[in-house]
Amino acid sequence: MSPIGDEIPIGKVPSGVSAVSSSEIARTRSDYTADVLQAYVPGIILSDYQGNGFQTNVDYRGFNSSPVDGVPQGLAVYQNGVRINESFGDTVNYDFITPIAINSMTVMSGNPVFGLNAIGGSISIDMKDGFKYQGFEADTRFGSYGRVQGSIQDGMRFGNWATYIAMDAIRDEGFRDQGTSDIRRLYADLGVKGDGSEFHLNFTGADNTVGVAAASPVELLDEGWGKVFTTPQSTTNEMEMVSLNGNVQATDTLQLSGVTYYRHFNQQHIDGNISNATPCAINPPGPSATGACLDNLDGTTILLQDTTGKLINVDPDVGLGEIDRTSVNANSFGGSLQGVDKTPLFDHHNQFLLGGSIDHGEVSFSSSAQLGVLQPNFVVEGGGPFVGPFGQICTVEADGSCTPTGGTDLSDIRPVSISTRNTYYGLYFLDTFDATDRLTLTAGGRFNVANIEIHDETGLAPDLNSNNTYYHFNPVAGGTYKLFDGVSLYGSFSEANRAPVAAELACADPNNPCLLPSFLTSDPPLKQVVSYTWEAGLKGSNTDVLSHQKTTWSLGFFHTVNTDDIINVASSIIGRSSFANAGDTLREGVEAQVNYWSGPLFVYANYNFVDATFRSNLTLPSPFNPFADENGNIFVHPGDRLPGVPAHKFKTGVDYAWTPQWRIGADLVAASNQIFFGDESNQNAPLGGYAKVNFHTSYDVTDHIQIYGLVDNAFNAHYGVYGTFFDINATNDAAGSTFLDPRTVVPAAPITAYGGLKVKF
C-alpha cells in the first residue's frame, strides 16, 4: 500500500508517471533495482559516488535518491507502503531489495501525499506475494571479474492463504582493486484473503559488504582503468524489516488500508585516506621527537594526542594516512492508515482519500580516525593510534617545527558519538472528481511535521545538542482531460518539503567540517527545502486486440523551483565537508517515452532534458578547484548548472523472439556531460557524456530449462559517472607522487559478460 495505492488509473493522474512491470524487470535480468529504473524511466540516470555497482545513486530530474550519506535526498521511496528512507540521513539502500521479488515499480512526480523528501517525486515498490506469483524458479550465473550468483523464488497458494519467498546471493570481485562485493538478500511474504479483506506479513533482510573504491585521479586512471586511490574502503550493511499491511472493504464504497513496520539498520564504513596531519619536529621542553601536526580550521595548530592523552609520535620519513571509521545503528518503526471512499458526488464518480502516518527513528552514530602509514599504490596501513579529542596547541616555527604552548584544543578529526531521534508525522487527503466524462479534477494536500533531536554522547560538543521541529502544508491541484479515446491532457501544481535530516543539522558549520560519509559537529540551524512544481503534458495508449499490438506514450513539461535548497560543500580537510542552504535552484525540462508491443516484438525509447541550475548568487568553499580564489572560494551566479546532472538522457531498447524458444535483445543508455562536484561556478571543463550498449539473449532448452547470456557495455566504452577534485599538494607531499591535475573520476565498468542457467516449474 502506497499513500495513494493503486486506486487512481494512471490516465487520471495529473503529473508524470512511469510504471515498470515484473515482466519488464525480468527482461533486464538486473541484480540491482536501480538499473531497472534507469532503463525504463525517462528522467532517471544513475551516478556512482562510491565506485561500486551495488551502491549507485538514482537521479530523477536532477533530484537524488542515494545510499551515500552526505548526498541531499530528494525522493521519497516506499516498499509495500513502508517509507524506506533510512532514519539518519534519509538514504535509500537499493541493494537490500532483490529485483526478482518485485512485482512492479511506479515513479511519480509532483505529489506531496508521499510526504517528506518528495520534492522531486516518489518511487513506490510493490513486492510479489503468493497470490500474484505461483511457481518455482532457480537461477545461477557466472561471468566476468569472478561473478558467481544464485537465486530462487517460490510462490504457492492454498485456498485463501499464500506464501512467497525469494532469496539471492552474489559474489563479485569487481573490475577495480578492493572492489569485492558480497550480497545476500531475502524477502518472504505470508498472505491471507477473506471476504472483502486481505492481509500480508512480510520480511525483508540483507547482509551486504561492498568494496568501494571511490574516485581516482584522472592521471591514475590513464595508467589503468581499474586503478584506485587510497584504500581500504568498504561498507557493510545489515538490515531486517518486518511489516504487516492489509485492507478491508468496510462498505460498498469505503475501503480501509494500513501498514505498520519495524526496521533495523546497521552500517559499518571503513575509509582509508591521506591524512591532513603531517610529521613535525617537537621542540623542548620535552625530549626531541616527531609528532603529528594538524592545522585546525580555527587557526590553531595542534600536536595530535591519542585517546589516552599521550602525544602521537610518527616516523618523519613516511607519509601519514588515516583510517576513518563510521558506525550507524538505527531502529525505526511506524505505520500509516488511510481510507478511500468512492461515494458518487453530484451523480459523478468521485474518490476521496484521507490518511495519516507516523515514522519514528532512533540512531546511534560514532566515528573515529586512526593514523596509519601511506604505502605504495595509495594503500593506507592501519595499526597506528586512534586520534583523541584533544591536541596540544603549539607555535609553528620557521623551520616547520612545533613548540608546545601548554594549552589544548579540540581536534578537527576527533572521535564523535551522538544519538538522534526523529519523528515524522503526516496527515494527507486527495480528492479525484470526474467533472465530466472527459474532465477529471484532483485536489489535495499533506501537512508534515518533522521533529529531529540530536544529543552529543561525549560531552565535548554541547552546541551539538538540539531539538528542531519543522512544519509545512503542501497543496496539490490539477486535472486531466480526455481529448479523445486513448489520449489525455494533464496539468498540475504542487508543493513539497524536505526537512534537514540529523546528519545535515549536525554538520552545518563550515568551520567544523564533518567526516564523510559521516558528519557531526556543532550546527547553525538549516532551513527546510520547499519545492514548487508545475507540470503539463499528454499521455496516450492504444491497444489492437486483433493484431496483438499495444502502444503507450507520454510527452511532458516540468518546472520545479526549490527554495533554501541544501547542498554539500567541501572542506580543506580531506574527506570532510559541511551543509549549507544555497538559495533557490531550478530544475525544468521535458521528457518523452514510448513503448510498443507487437507479437514477438517489444521496443521502447525515452528521452529527458533537464536544465538544472542555481538561481542565487553564492560564495562557496571549493579549496581544490583550480579556479578557487586565494581563500579557496568560488563564486556561483544564477544560471550556473548544478553538478552531477546530465542535461540530456536517452534510452532505447528492443526485444525480439526469433523463434518460440530463442529471444535476443539490446539496450542503449546515453547521457550528456555533467559538471564536476566542487565546480558549481562552472569554470572547468565538464565530465564527458557517454553511451553504452548492452546485449542479452536466452534459449529455452525445454519448457522448464533456459540458458541465457548477457553482455554489458558491449563496446567497452570508457567514461566517468562522477567527478570531483582532490588535494594534489597534500597527496604529492605524503605519497611522493607528481600529480598535476586535481580532477578525480569514478570510472564506469568496462565490458562484462555473464552466462546463466534458469530452471522453472
Plain-language structure description:
The protein is mostly beta strands and 761 residues long. The protein has five helices and 44 strands. The chain has a single domain, classed as Maltoporin, Chain A (Beta Barrel), CATH 2.40.170.20. The strands form seven sheets. The protein has a 22-stranded antiparallel β-barrel. Strands 1-7-8-5-6 form a five-stranded mixed sheet.
Protein topology:
Layout: E1 17-21, H1 22-28, H2 33-40, E2 44-47, E3 57-60, E4 63-65, E5 75-79, E6 82-83, E7 102-108, E8 121-127, E9 135-143, E10 147-158, E11 161-172, E12 181-194, E13 197-211, E14 216-217, H3 218-223, E15 233-249, E16 254-274, E17 278-282, E18 289-295, E19 301-306, E20 320-341, E21 350-375, E22 379-381, E23 387-396, E24 402-410, E25 416-434, E26 439-456, E27 466-484, E28 487-498, H4 502-505, E29 514-515, E30 529-544, E31 549-563, E32 566-570, E33 576-581, E34 585-598, E35 601-614, E36 618-621, E37 633-636, E38 648-657, E39 662-671, E40 690-700, E41 705-712, E42 720-725, H5 728-735, E43 743-747, E44 752-760
Parallel strand pairs: 5-8
Antiparallel strand pairs: 1-7, 2-3, 3-4, 5-6, 7-8, 9-10, 9-44, 10-11, 11-12, 12-13, 13-15, 14-43, 15-16, 16-20, 17-18, 18-19, 19-23, 20-21, 21-22, 21-25, 23-24, 25-26, 26-27, 27-28, 28-30, 29-33, 30-31, 31-34, 32-33, 34-35, 35-38, 36-37, 38-39, 39-40, 40-41, 41-44, 42-43
